[in-house]
Amino acid sequence: MTGFIAWALFLLILMEVIRAYFVSIRQVAANAFKPDNSGLPPFMQRLARAHMNCIEGLPIFGGLMAVAIMTMRTDVTDGLAYWVLAARVAQSSIHLASGSETAATLRFLAFAVQLVIAVYWVFKLS
């Protein structure tokens, strides 16, 4: 979970550093940013969405890991936790790199890995 949170934090810091740059060069007023970064270059819009994807997944994976810890069943999550993190980093990285159809397909595959693991954890922890 620390890696998952660290990745979401990294994306947020990257977004805010770039936003600060836009403010410093007077390209965007400090109070003009929209949550989805609309009106900014496509990379910034993909960055906002990649960050939001992490935030949306956090309650699911964090919740499942919390259940594993509370029920002393971390054996269920331990082996696949790094795969979830790797798939999340891959998904975000692909999202940042391109908005092409191929990139969207690869991004979905990385997301599907996370979903399969989450469903497996739900069944094993039930």
Describe the structure.
With 126 residues, the chain is mostly helical. Helices cover 80% and strands 0% of the residues. The chain has four helices and no strands. Helix 2 packs antiparallel against helix 3 and helix 2 runs parallel beside helix 4. The two termini are 20 Å apart. The model has no long low-confidence stretch (mean pLDDT 96).
Mind sketching the topology for me?
Layout: H1 2-24, H2 42-70, H3 74-97, H4 101-125
Oligomer: single chain
Number of strands: 0
Mean pLDDT: 96
Number of helices: 4
Brief rundown of the structure:
Helix content is 80%, strand content 0%. The protein is mainly alpha-helical and 126 residues long.
Q: Notable features of this structure?
A:
126 residues, mainly alpha, 4 helices
